[in-house]
Design brief:
The chain is of the alpha+beta class. Helix content is about 45%, strand content about 15%. The protein has a 3-stranded antiparallel β-sheet with strand order 1-2-3. Helix 4 crosses helix 5. The mean pLDDT is about 80.
Length: about 210
Amino acid sequence: MSMSRRARFMLQHQLRHRVDGQLNLIPFIDILTVMVSFLLVYSTNVEVVQNSKGIEIPQSIAERQPRTTVVVMLTKEDLFVQGERIASVADIQATAGDIIGPLRDALKRPLMGRAARELSDYVIVTNDNPRREDPQIIIDGILAGMRNGAGAAYEVVPDRAAAIDLAVRSAEDGDVVIIAGKGHEAYQLIGEESLPFSDAVVARAAIEKHDK
């Protein structure tokens, strides 16, 4: 079959500017957001699968096999990632903006956990701003990435103040303690409440307490 002039130009452009690299998380999330939005708009009858294990994933033709396979499932009522319900269809449709927040969060948590374990000497997993989400589900999402990889030892301390205190108390001369997640925020969002909480204030108190 002959190729049109435009098709030949596009092929040459693609070959000339092709760059081999790993999949970037942000475009990946954008792709899944578009897919879910498309399904929400054009879905009719949906076959409900009880769990992600019943889904046969097509084999990748990439030269390197992916570290992790992510199953995103949409029913008439809910959106699931890796078998965990992360949002209802009604909530997604009522959300303003182009990004599906719960989908973005569910996809990034395992990657954050794996990166923390690979790049640290010790990791403490704790709560950030769970809002209306079950804090244990958030922690489980992070741990999923940590269990699948290798690296530093880790533990879970759900109480953020206690986790910061433990990190400061465990630090030795020359260590760097990174308190990630909240940054400059002076509050913690739990359920419908906005509770006073500052990482800087808690860390400073822990340093004074343990004389670091």
